[in-house]
Specification:
mainly alpha, 434 Repressor (Amino-terminal Domain), about 0% strand, globular
Length: about 80
Amino acid sequence: MNEHGYDKELIKFRGNVGEVIQEARKSRFMSQEKLSQLSGLTQSQISRIEAGERSVSLYVIAKIAKVLEIRPEEILKIN
């Protein structure tokens, strides 16, 4: 895969991660602000993660997963 194709895959992956987090958060009737308070991230970080604009470390995924009461691998699922 060329470099451009690799970049597209990373962008798609970030978007998928953001969608999973957003769906899990909304299904728990939780605001971005509440998720940020419970996870120790800023609301801006949560917003950018959900929008697929920010890469997320495994540590951050684990923190978010704990708050949302889901397994980290659920966030990392690939469509």
